[in-house]
Amino acid sequence: xxxxxxxxxxxxxxxxxxxxxxxxxxxxxxxxxxxxxxxxxxxxxxxxxxxxxxxxxxxxxxxxxxxxxxxxxxxxxxxxxxxxxxxxxxxxxxxxxxxxxxxxxxxxxxxxxxxxxxxxxxxxxxxxxxxxxxxxxxxxxxxxxxxxxxxxxxxxxxxxxxxxxxxxxxxxxxxxxxxxxxxxxxxxxxxxxxxxxxxxxxxxxxxxxxxxxxxxxxxxxxxxxxxxxxxxxxxxxxxxxxxxxxxxx
Length: 249
Description:
With 249 residues, the chain is mainly α.
């Protein structure tokens, strides 16, 4: 990337970050809500005791990956496509095409903000869980990082696909909200996964962001390769479809 391009990207990233933080509700829900739920459940002694229903894990250990799903779903399939569709509808992307700051730089800035939000949330969940509620650190750090990267990539690709096919803000929200709700449901946010029928749990294993892979890496030896492979395939297919269908106008 040329020096001028880097400067333009840096300026756009600074502006987009300021706009993101100015919308108080977005960072609050995306980062603070999972931490709040962690604190609520962590302050209940029974939730910190090992339970055979969770494979001798405590409820808070079992539920921690689902808390991370909140951040992933909010950043990737709720905020990202809505912002991009809004910019397209208002002609922002078209106008950027006539300046040194290309629309691709804006797209890259939005992806960086989404990734930074997800990483910050994951680190805070792990650190607060460990220090405040004695939740063990991920037993397989590399596996956890890989599961998080692939799950994030799959959800971001789905978010970009929504942004690609939605021409207006309302259209983006009409598509994004059902996808968001499905991700949250199969990720065990609305109803803990142990309370779901087995076939729904299995569907959730292969639904982005792959909460079972995150749980395995956090509490067991390593995530299953098939879970990771499915996330990679979804990321590639959805990303390729988004790139093919995406229009700046």
